[in-house]
Prior knowledge:
The chain has 2 domains: 7-36; 53-108, CATH 2.40.50.40. It is 30% helix and 18% strand. The protein has 2 helices and 4 strands; from the N terminus they run αβββαβ. By secondary structure, the protein is α+β, with helices and mostly antiparallel strands. A 4-stranded mixed sheet has the order 3-2-1-4.
Amino acid sequence: MKMWTSPSKTTSCVLWLLTFIMIFLSAFQAEAQGQRAIACCPSVSRAIIRSHVSECYVQEAQSSEDYCGIQAYILVTTSGDKFCVDPRARWLKQKLKMLTKRGVSCLPLLRPE
Length: 113
C-alpha cells in the first residue's frame, strides 16, 4: 500500500506561482473596475465641470473622524484631475445621465487602508 508523500518541488512551485498569479489578477481586476482607493473629498463645489470625465465615484458621508464626513460625487477627468461635486449641484443629474450613456458608472469610493 502506497502512503501519501509530500508534494514534489515542482508541484510546490506550480502552486506558489498560481497563488501569486491569482493575487496579482485580483488586484488588477479591482483596478480595471475602477475600484481603486482615491483620496476622499474634504469639501465640495457646485461649479460646472466641462472637462471630459472618465471616472466617477460616490463618496458617502461617514461618521468616522478619520475619514471625510460629507457626501460627494468625485469626477475624474481623462487628464487625471479630480473634482469634488456637491450632490445637489443642478447640472450634476444631466452630467450623470451623459456618463451613463457613455458607459461610465459611478462606483462607491473605497476607503483608503
